[in-house]
């Protein structure tokens, strides 16, 4: 079942349940999918493109929540985080901290990185291999830690 079909099914359920937070989040996803499909040449999105789109939406919600928290608006921050959770259910399972460490150590060995100067090489490989499985911030922080220990 493709992402658009899943979103439509969840959208119907959210309407029946009168779940406004889920409705807003799902409508945002549907809108982004439609925009991406119409701006593309062939009108279809690959699974990688769908995952990237979902990650972008989750990141936007988390950043908005941080801004609301910083400006003493916790009720709006909670709403953004709840929407992020709704969107995250369509993403593949995220790697645990241990799994992320192991994966990055393997990538460091593959690339042959020997110092923090090789961060660019490692990040390029890690970003492509771990796309959708971990956030960019988490990958970057873990790569820094591992390379600092070399």
TrEMBL record:
Gene3D superfamilies given in the database record: 1.10.10.410, Uncharacterised protein YqeY/AIM41 PF09424, N-terminal domain
One annotated GO molecular function: carbon-nitrogen ligase activity, with glutamine as amido-N-donor
Residue stretches in coiled coil: none
Record's signal peptide: none
InterPro entries tied to this protein: Asn/Gln_tRNA_amidoTrase-B-like, GatB_Yqey_C_2, YqeY/Aim41, YqeY/Aim41_N
Name by which UniProt lists this protein: Aspartyl-tRNA amidotransferase subunit B
SUPFAM superfamilies to which the protein is assigned, alphabetical: GatB/YqeY motif
């Amino acid at each position: 079942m493709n992402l658009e079909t899943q979103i439509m099914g969840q959208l119907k359920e959210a309407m029946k349940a009168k779940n406004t937070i889920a409705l807003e989040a799902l409508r945002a996803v549907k809108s982004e999918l439609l925009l991406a499909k119409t701006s593309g040449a062939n009108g279809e999105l690959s699974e990688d493109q769908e995952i990237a789109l979902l990650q972008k939406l989750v990141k936007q919600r988390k950043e908005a929540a941080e801004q609301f928290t910083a400006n003493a608006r916790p009720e709006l921050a909670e709403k953004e985080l709840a929407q992020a959770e709704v969107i995250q259910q369509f993403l593949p399972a995220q790697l645990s901290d241990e799994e992320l460490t192991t994966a990055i150590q393997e990538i460091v060995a593959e690339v042959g990185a020997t110092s923090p100067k090789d961060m660019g090489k490692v990040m390029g490989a890690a970003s492509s291999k771990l796309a959708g499985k971990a956030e960019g911030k988490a990958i970057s922080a873990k790569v820094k830690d591992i390379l600092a220990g070399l």
